[in-house]
Amino acid sequence: MMRSMTLWEYATLNRGDEVxxxxxxxxxxxxxxxxxxHTPKVLMLYRDNSKTMGVGVRGMNKPAPDxxxxxxxxxxxxxxxxxxxxxxxxxxxxxxxxxxxxxxEPPLDAWRKTPxxxxxxxxxxxxxxxxxxxxxAQKAVxxxxxxxxxxxxxxxxxxxxxxxxxxxxxxxxxxxxxTGKNVLHRAYLDRAKSVARESLLALGxxxxxxxxxxxxxxxxxxxxxxxxxxxxPWVNDKLKKDVAHCAAxxxxxxxxxxxxxxPRIRHIFHDPLFDEFALRVRNADRTTVAxxxxxxxxxGVCVTTARL
Length: 308
Hints:
This protein has helices at about 1-10, 15-20, 80-95, 110-115, 125-140, 150-160, 165-175, 185, 195-200, 225-230, 235-250, 265-270, 270-285, 295-305, and strands at about 25-30, 35, 40-45, 65-70, 215. The chain is mainly alpha-helical. The strands form two sheets. The chain has a three-stranded antiparallel β-sheet. The longest helix has 15 residues, at about 80-95. It is globular.
């Protein structure tokens, strides 16, 4: 669980309290247009308790919903979407936690109230547990940071800045207040789907370039429907696909292979259907974005979009 939370906080620049308050019903998926050669699918979590949201549009008491966003990382082991999928797989398929009752009255009440990252008792993760895990993790790798649960927000912002994300882009991605400057974002744009393109790319391990290049070969390989149906049926297809894509790379990795060897899920990731899919993914990933210079990528985009 903490690996999932850590990667998510780092990629989305979120505060620990916002992540701990996230619910299963907060997950959404949408596409971001005007990228080439591939169209990224963004996994979003609504954040309706952000301390920077203030009052709503035109003085209304109820603020508009905000969102935090992540895309597939070029490195499967650093992918926050994959880590979240693995956590949910471990929680509902291995530990056997019951799925929320979709027929409960009032409608979907259990779904809306179920924490995305839950304690051992299934309720919202307390700050003390979050702090304890972060402290132990930092100690294990020999670092000391005063800000424990807040450290990923700072670290992610620094990495995105180092990769070339601009100030306004970072401010939008992290939800920092821009008094007087973000009236457009607060009052006129779809705040849940207004993505900071540079930060999104940088924290996903992609080249920023001109903010319009997204290249991830493995994401273009469609898992067979039979394979997707084996993965927690109530979760959206985006999460299922990313778990399958990353498992194709990580199943035989010495650090992560134990995840896919558990008796309750081993049959999924050692099925001949998965073996065939994994081979296609690995072949696609042999050519990665790191193999190309920004100039070559732009040339490739021009070729793929040319109308001859």
